[in-house]
């Protein structure tokens, strides 16, 4: 069975058993979001999302999300290069460790960070003694928690892009006289740019929605560590209208990020 | 004086590559060999992409590889260019920026590099496509841009790895013609690896035949192909080749006889050329045949060689017949041999249709 589009290619018709679960799956995502819109207290919406706590949380979420994404790029790009291109022994083990935050409950991640960097932790102790720095329950802690959970998204996406591109372009660059650093800068990274962009978007989205690791490691202080997801959770305990309104703000931010990166057609660079 | 002097000995998978190759400045040497004969390993080693077990490679007096002394110059400092089957143009750069890439790496300014790129693109006949992205180029155009890119860095040695193998049949002759022209113009020292004898005939001064990782034959292209001594050279030289000068009808041999055929590309009258046809295209007759074949010549049968499904009749010049009959081969079925009742020493007629004869330009 085929369906024809005039002037285009013939598209194979999907077998019917695909459609039912596909519709259910889409509904599972779309219906709750639509419900959110219906449940919203529209007359008070403006007031609900512009309370000082809400504005603080939104601003903090955007700031920390962007900083975490930048950190993911800074640390995750070289990490992906090592995973995709080096021949270090024990690379599979290394890769499993990098993927750990994907499968670990975020709360557990937050606790491990707390044990390591807390005032009594092995590194936190030294930071406190030498520099008088206390990491937990600070905005820096929020960024660290978000980077911890978001980095694997960037690494996985970029490593895939690097493996797909292969080393052939780098070989050509070398025979044209490009040093390894020049080849990386002028060939490898531009070629995997779509993977880099989609990885960054995923990382930013994950950082924006981060809850468990943040509350365990950074706490819930308005203006310092109370990001939007944390505020939404707290509000949902007593002021449901406020929680719903801010949830909608988060949905809009997420949709804007996705649409903005999709329409840039980064996949067009091949 | 030699430009490249290489002695390479290394194990790869099932065989050992053990060869010595020399290339003089401005010379084009073709390495011919079947798949798995070690051609690619040799190129990879020369380019600095494969680490050999035991090798010494010098280029213009510079030591590139010397395993005994622990020298291994990295690929990007060798000044050895590589053009492979795939054009592998950088997909994010325009044709011009692809060609300018090498000069930029060599420290040229943006403007100078672009000017050099435009000149090279003009050399390969694509000045109007400078702004195009690789995705907007045909296979033949992309390979021509890749030629321009490889030459733009003015490498001391250019390696060609089956550069026409991935092109479709229509595009290959044009790209080969461009490559022949630019290589000749620039006097580019070149090592070509191929399994297509036509590439070697068109481009190379000298031929090195590789089999099972060893050099089994080497010498001037025409000589090796005229008197092949190895099985592989005999098989590729299994094509019938007649040297001469291009003419309107096809080709004129040194003794003035005409071989009718069609030119694979535009050829000037009198340009050195070679007529190529497969022995399977040669019909064998007892008497002068009637009908359409344009090339009919008397020969004396020198030998009968059974070759699997067919029998190869090897010709010698007949008294009074053209000299270019010497060494020509004709493949016929055993049934036809029985029917003709031929044996060595017999005088026969070979006939070849003009449409079966391709006339290629010849190096020198």
Automatic annotation (TrEMBL), chain B:
Annotated Gene3D superfamilies: 2.40.50.100, P-loop containing nucleotide triphosphate hydrolases (3.40.50.300)
Domain Mop: 290-361
Presence of the UniProt keyword Nucleotide-binding in the record: yes
Protein's UniProt keywords contain Lipoprotein: no
UniProt keyword list: ATP-binding, Molybdenum, Nucleotide-binding, Transport
Record GO terms (molecular function): ATP binding
Protein name: ATP-binding cassette domain-containing protein
């Amino acid at each position: 069975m085929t369906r024809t589009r005039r002037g285009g290619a013939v598209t194979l018709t999907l077998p019917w058993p695909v459609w039912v679960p596909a519709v259910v799956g889409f509904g599972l995502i779309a219906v709750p979001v639509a419900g959110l819109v219906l449940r919203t207290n529209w007359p008070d919406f403006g007031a609900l999302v512009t309370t000082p706590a809400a504005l603080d949380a939104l601003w903090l979420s955007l700031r920390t999300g962007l900083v975490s994404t930048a950190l993911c790029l800074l640390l995750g790009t070289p990490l992906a290069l090592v995973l995709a291109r080096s021949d270090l022994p024990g690379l599979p083990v290394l890769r499993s460790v990098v993927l750990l935050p994907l499968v670990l409950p975020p709360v557990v991640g937050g606790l491990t960070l707390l044990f390591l960097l807390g005032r009594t932790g092995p590194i936190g102790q030294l930071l406190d003694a030498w520099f008088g720095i206390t990491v937990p329950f600070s905005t820096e802690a929020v960024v660290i928690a978000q980077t911890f959970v978001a980095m694997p998204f960037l690494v996985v996406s970029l490593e895939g892009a690097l493996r797909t591109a292969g080393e052939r372009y780098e070989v050509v660059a070398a025979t044209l006289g490009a040093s390894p650093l020049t080849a990386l800068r002028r060939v490898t990274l531009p070629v995997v740019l779509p993977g880099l962009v989609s990885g960054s978007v995923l990382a930013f989205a994950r950082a924006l929605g981060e809850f468990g690791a943040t509350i365990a490691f950074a706490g819930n202080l308005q203006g310092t560590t109370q990001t939007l997801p944390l505020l939404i959770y707290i509000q949902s305990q007593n002021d449901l209208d406020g929680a719903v309104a801010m949830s909608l703000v988060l949905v809009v931010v997420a949709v804007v990020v996705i649409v903005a990166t999709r329409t840039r057609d980064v996949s067009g660079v091949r | 004086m030699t430009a490249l002097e290489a002695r390479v000995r290394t194990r790869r998978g099932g065989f050992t590559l053990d060869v010595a190759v020399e290339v003089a400045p401005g010379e084009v040497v073709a390495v011919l060999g079947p798949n798995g004969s070690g051609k690619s390993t040799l190129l990879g080693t020369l380019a600095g992409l494969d680490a050999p077990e035991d090798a010494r490679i010098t280029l213009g007096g510079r030591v590139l590889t010397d395993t005994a002394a622990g020298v291994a110059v990295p690929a990007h400092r060798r000044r050895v260019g590589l053009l492979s089957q795939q054009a592998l143009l950088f997909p994010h750069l325009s044709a011009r920026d692809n060609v300018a890439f090498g000069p930029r790496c060599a420290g040229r300014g943006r403007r100078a590099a672009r000017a050099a790129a435009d000149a090279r693109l003009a050399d390969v006949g694509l000045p109007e496509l400078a702004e195009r992205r690789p995705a907007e180029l045909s296979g033949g155009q992309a390979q021509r841009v890749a030629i321009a890119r490889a030459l733009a860095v003015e490498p001391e040695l250019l390696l060609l790895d089956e550069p026409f193998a991935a092109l479709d049949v229509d595009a290959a002759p044009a790209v080969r013609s461009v490559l022949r022209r630019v290589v000749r113009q620039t006097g580019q020292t070149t090592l070509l690896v191929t399994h297509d004898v036509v590439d070697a005939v068109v481009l190379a001064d000298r031929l090195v035949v590789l089999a099972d990782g060893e050099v089994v034959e080497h010498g001037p292209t025409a000589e090796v192909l005229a008197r092949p001594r190895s099985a592989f050279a005999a098989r590729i030289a299994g094509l019938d080749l007649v040297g001469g000068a291009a003419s309107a009808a096809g080709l004129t041999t040194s003794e003035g006889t005409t071989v009718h055929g069609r030119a694979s590309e535009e050829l000037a009258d009198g340009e050195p050329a070679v007529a190529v046809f497969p022995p399977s295209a040669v019909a064998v007759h007892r008497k002068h045949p009637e009908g359409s074949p344009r090339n009919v010549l008397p020969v004396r049968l020198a030998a009968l060689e059974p070759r699997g499904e067919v029998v190869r009749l090897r010709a010698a010049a007949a008294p009074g017949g053209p000299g270019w009959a010497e060494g020509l081969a004709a493949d016929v079925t055993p049934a036809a041999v029985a029917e003709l009742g031929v044996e060595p020493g017999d005088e026969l007629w070979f006939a070849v249709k003009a449409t079966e004869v391709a006339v290629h330009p010849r190096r020198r």
